[in-house]
Amino acid sequence: MAVSPPDVRAAVAESGALGATVRQIAERLGVGAAAVDLGLQGLARAGEVVRMGRGLWILRDYDHLELRDDFTEPAAYADRFEREERTPLGRYHGPITFRSNDGLPFHRWWPYVQGYSAEFVATLLRSARIGPGSTVLDPFAGSGTSLVEARRLGARAIGYELLAPAVLAARVKTDPDLDPDEFAREAGRLLRAARRAPLAPMPFLRETRRQFSRPALIQLRQIRSVLPPEGAGSVADALRLAFASTLVPVSRLRRSPCLGYDPVARDRPLPFVRYAQVVRTMVEDLTARTRSVDRWGPPAEVHSGDSRRIDLPPNSVDLAITSPPYVNGLDYVMNYKLDLAWLGYVDSYAELSALRTAEVACDNLPREATRDFLATDEAPDPWLREILPRIRENVARKGTYRRDDMHGIVHRYFRDLAEVLRGVLAALRPGGRFVLVVGDSLLAGTYVPGDLLTARIGRRLGFRIESVDVARGRRSGQRRQFALRESIVTLSRPAGRIP
Ligand SMILES: C[S@@+](CC[C@H](N)C(=O)[O-])C[C@H]1O[C@@H](n2cnc3c(N)ncnc32)[C@H](O)[C@@H]1O
């Protein structure tokens, strides 16, 4: 059925600053996608609409969000922050993303893409004079970047992490009892046993057969059937980690940074080959470490628990350092579902969903998890009481946005973060610092200065804001031309009682 350009234009206009996809417009107008596509091409040639990232179309008037009356841009928040907090935004010039850890001993043991740079952590720990006798805390420990670096300097390292494969990675990387010779021997034995082993059951994930070639699937199931259980000692844990590290490289998937099918059909190693490679790398790093291990700190304490409920003794931590999940950022549970399922940490979609609810909020959160956060006047910072209603209005105006509780997700995110800040503050010694690497976001056509909000919420809870330094630029997934950033927020615990 044909559709008139004014109707298409009106449908795009209704979606406001958020934009709409061809499918959404077609549904709204009750016509076919091809007709809408044709209409949009014509309007685009006439300069009336433009296509943004993610296949969204918007009116050209909305292309420049910063020109709109209801849009507060990053620079305006930076000015306001400078005025209200008396802290100008600074710059950090060192490395920050995890990519720079790919080739580094220990850090390279598990393909985790959300970590931050080991070099950044090491530089910071050294400048804070962390060494034997100090205690370092990472409330979102991930794969253990901070813990490895803190131990390397002789410090006590404590981490909290909810994602079981990340806990495993952090524990194995910081385990002083893991002996390279014994590990190499047991890995060889495991591979020999796997070649003769029956096939273990498939994990519950629906797409398992699509994710792997037939030979890869057979070998993975053979390894799975001889894999030791969780908690059976240092070598057993290392054998399990090597299996986790085998999964994505032998699959048809990639993490870039979200887990998805690789558009390029590549030759993938088979699991037995890949497993042996992973073990060789780990053994190489362990063997090199044996020369300096005496100077390393005590075994890291990796709590498999929720950092909103940190229960460390007061004054027990010298420095906390972390990169929290970003607001509306990645769905960690989704991204590491292969590791969760194949290692038997999770046995059903219901369990995946429960884990997602326990994590700091992301936009795949089950709907019932935002129910208590839909009223916005309780938000932990006055800026949020302006930002959240704006998100709600933008979503309501469009109607077809994926979630109508988006403002509830953002609200819950900052409430979660406030709980973590509160727990860290209570554990820090006076003068101790909490350094967070955190980004800003563009959500539902609304700019959310996540870094500045983190600093402000910290200050309201009793921290002093030391600095906010922009470390690198990023691009919005929602709108490629919109520049976002990643910052280092440094807070400190003042002397005296916490309010
Ligand atoms: C950005 S990553 C941390 C990366 C880490 N710095 C590294 O280099 O490996 C954030 C981590 O926070 C974890 N997380 C989210 N909510 C949590 C919670 N409530 N308690 C503990 N960990 C949580 C996620 O599972 C994820 O691994």
Q: What can be said about the biggest beta sheet?
A: 8 strands, mixed
Percentage of β-strand residues: 5-15%
Number of domains: 3
Helix content: 40-55%
Unreliable stretches (pLDDT < 50, length at least 5) are none
Rg over C-alpha atoms, rounded to the nearest angstrom: 24 Å
Average pLDDT confidence is: 90
Number of alpha- plus pi-helical segments: 18
Order of adjacent strands in the largest pleated sheet: 3-13-14-10-9-4-5-8
**Count of beta strands:** 14
Supply the helix-strand structural class: alpha/beta
Query: N-to-C terminal Cα separation, in Å?
Result: 66 Å
The coarse overall form would be globular
Bound molecules: S-adenosylmethionine
Task: Please supply descriptive tags for the structure shown above.
18 helices; 8-stranded mixed sheet; alpha/beta; 3 domains; two-stranded antiparallel sheet; binds S-adenosylmethionine; 42% helix; 15% strand; globular; 499 residues; Arc Repressor Mutant, subunit A; 14 strands
What does this structure look like?
Helices cover 42% and strands 15% of the residues. The protein is of the alpha/beta class. The protein folds into 3 domains: 5-63, Orthogonal Bundle (Arc Repressor Mutant, subunit A), CATH 1.10.10.10; 67-93 and 324-328 and 363-492, no CATH class; 177-295 and 331-358, no CATH class. It has an 8-stranded mixed sheet with strand order 3-13-14-10-9-4-5-8, with helices on both faces. The protein has a two-stranded antiparallel sheet with strand order 1-2. It has a two-stranded antiparallel ribbon with strand order 6-7. α16 (382-398) runs antiparallel to α17. The longest helix is centred in the last third of the chain and has 22 residues, at 406-427. The radius of gyration is 24 Å and the shape is globular. The model has no long low-confidence stretch (mean pLDDT 90). The structure holds S-adenosylmethionine. S-adenosylmethionine binds at residues 112, 114-116, 140, 142-143, 145, 160-163, 166, 306-308, 322-325, 332, 359-360.
